[in-house]
Design brief:
The protein is an alpha/beta fold. It is built from 14 helices and 9 strands. The chain has 2 domains: about 35 residues; about 250 residues, 3-Layer(aba) Sandwich (Rossmann fold), CATH 3.40.50. Strand 1 and strand 2 form a beta hairpin. The longest helix is centred in the N-terminal third of the chain and has 33 residues.
């Protein structure tokens, strides 16, 4: 006789527990949304695009109505920055990205057109279609040697809109292909998980915590993966990692597609420079090195490191590319800033990269970029005023 009553009581208590848990989660989410910037934690919705590969849906995950990492789209600005994830600010808070820090440093309005997965062809397109509508006095384009050459070739070979940029000997087929926007995601509850990543800061934080915990556990049990090289120097406090077998494919000039990507990149920057000259807008290219090249002096002294030969090959290839780029820019009167010596001078006293294989600078790295660019722009301004 008492069994149905106990069952109802158990069911009621279970419902109350679930309801209480949901209310707590909701309150926690509301608190996080009130104190944290959604653009720093939520995963935006990407939309496939036949011209620029992809773009972020307007207003998605705290982005502006153009789909970029700004509060809003202003009528005009002083400086526009264009680039990939190195400019977007992957893995750092929005307020710690170099475009935002540059804005604070110069007390001028800066608009960031950076987005991960972009390359020189997208930079060229965004300059014409977006940047010029903001009437800037200066445009800064980031050129990341880590993957921009490959990105340029892929855009020209895979997207019909840009096929005309390819040399005659190249065709649409290539050794690479662009992944689906959902690649790497389990099919289990994928739509629900995508919705939570796009809307819930709490879910994103819990997911990241779980992922990091699992990674740390696997690492402690099995050690580093075969493709990872770890660099430690207790005297200077250096502790970071690299993935040379992965990085080499993006910068190996013996691969014709990489050489073609470099040619296309130089063409895009040359055309961007001319477009800016025609509109009386300053144009600067920020040369962003790979993590391997930044640590050249430390890595080449350690021949016993895993993948030492590959690392040496990466560094030598990038040095040749950097020399070719700077010579081309000098000939065509394109302003540039080479961040390699700046970063190399900093690493013995400042931690500018995370300890993982992540090649994106941390907030200290971004502050160095902003400071370097700010000094350059200040010098150009004072130099120009002296000439007048």
């Amino acid at each position: 006789m008492n069994f149905p009553l106990k069952l109802r009581k158990y069911a009621l208590n279970s419902l109350l527990l679930i309801a209480s848990l949901l209310i707590c989660l909701l309150i926690g989410e509301l608190i996080l949304q009130a104190f944290l910037n959604p653009v720093d934690y939520l995963e935006p919705k990407l939309i496939a695009d036949d011209v620029i590969r992809w773009r972020i849906e307007p207003f998605s995950a705290g982005h502006d109505d153009w789909g970029y990492r700004n509060e809003s789209v202003p009528d005009s600005v002083d400086i526009v920055t264009i680039g990939d994830s190195q400019t977007y600010g992957a893995n750092v808070l929005k307020d710690n990205t170099w475009p935002v820090l540059l804005e604070k440093l110069l007390q001028e309005r800066v608009y960031n057109l950076g987005l991960g997965g972009y390359g020189p062809i997208q930079y060229f397109h965004l300059l014409k279609e977006k940047a010029f509508t903001l009437n800037p006095s200066t445009v800064v384009a980031g050129f990341y040697y880590g993957n921009d050459l490959q990105d340029a070739f892929l855009m020209a070979s895979k997207y019909e809109y840009w096929n005309h940029l390819l040399s005659e000997e190249f065709y649409q087929d290539s050794i690479w292909s662009y992944p689906d926007l959902n690649v790497g995601r389990s099919a289990f509850l994928v739509e629900i998980r995508k919705l939570l990543l796009n809307r819930s800061i709490l879910y994103r934080l819990l997911r990241e915590l779980l992922t990091n915990t699992i990674y740390a556990t696997v690492k402690s049990l099995l050690g580093e993966a075969d493709e990872i090289t770890v660099l430690k120097n207790p005297k200077s406090g250096i502790k970071t990692a690299f993935a040379p077998p992965w990085q080499i494919q993006f910068i190996d000039q013996s691969v014709p597609a990489i050489s073609e990507g470099l040619r296309i990149s130089l063409q895009m920057f040359q055309e961007m420079n001319q477009l800016c000259i025609d509109k009386n807008i300053g144009f600067i290219v920020l040369l962003i090195p790979t993590k391997e090249s930044v640590f050249t002096h430390h890595l080449l002294k350690r021949p016993e490191l895993k993948h030492a030969r590959t690392i040496k090959y990466i560094i030598s290839n990038e040095a040749a590319i950097n020399s070719q780029v700077k010579n081309h820019f000098d000939v065509h009167h394109i302003n540039f800033i080479d961040l390699l010596p700046v970063f190399q001078a900093a690493i013995d006293s400042t931690v500018i990269y995370p300890p993982s294989i992540d090649a994106h600078p941390n907030k200290l790295g971004h502050s160095i970029i902003a400071d370097t660019l700010g000094k350059y722009l200040g010098y150009v301004e004072s130099y120009s005023s002296e000439q007048n």
